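Appendix B, record 7
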Amino acid sequence: MKHYISPTNPMHAQFDARADYPARHFAWAFDAGVGTLTLNRPERKNPLTFESYAELRDLFHALKFATDVKAVVVTGAGGNFCSGGDVHDIIGPLTRMTMPELLEFTRMTGELVKAMRNCPQPVIGAIDGICAGAGAMMALACDIRYGTPAAKTAFLFTRVGLAGADMGACALLPRVIGQGRASELLFTGRAMTAAEGLAWGFFNALHDGAELLPAATALARELAAGPTFAHGMTKTMLQQEWAMTIEQAIEAEAQAQAICMQTQDFKRAYEAFASKQKPVFGGD
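Structure tokens (predicted):
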């Protein structure tokens, strides 16, 4: 097995989304502060490989340093989001690996979820069609999810003889849809319908297929035009407060808000309110 775990690349500090990001395993576009990542193997319903896992992980790590990127949209080409790990490129080779190699792989896949959760930008999933396995975990790692009526989300791990506990599923999914619903999906591997996903809070909204990406992009642009330093702080608090008591969370939010009160955006908002204008935020 090739080794895909590597120290943080010092070139990440030079990441500039305005340049052509040299993506090999997905498409990347950047406009008006919004980066759009498209899983782009439509002939196979956009499965992941060892290499694409690693490249996605590295991109989201690099986004920590990409001050020009204010929000990110993640979607799939060809009417599907992602069918999960490629059966031939991943699952077959995994059956022949040693335990150290297997642990290297499972830690790498988890690093992708952690990188998505830890980058400061709001990440919006635009999910159509098949959203399965690792693809469902990528969707779950997004901050906000838009779907279509055709979206079918399945945590398929038990269907291939594995635990439903994969890439943080047993921690993340109950927090989004509830323990009982998460337990059913993770034990059975059945597909959650779009209607269920909307009713259970997995999806924030459903849109027709042609309107899905425009709706997700419109929200991303709205967020990109907002107080992006404060958005990053909000995402950090949403992530960190899962492990806090109420008392700890209240204190953490007091400190976070005091920091935000020192930003220029806070002053801009006050000055705009006083002059009955709409604030123009700068992210600082």
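Remarks on this record: The CA atoms of residues 59 and 115 lie 9 Å apart. The longest strand covers residues 34-39.
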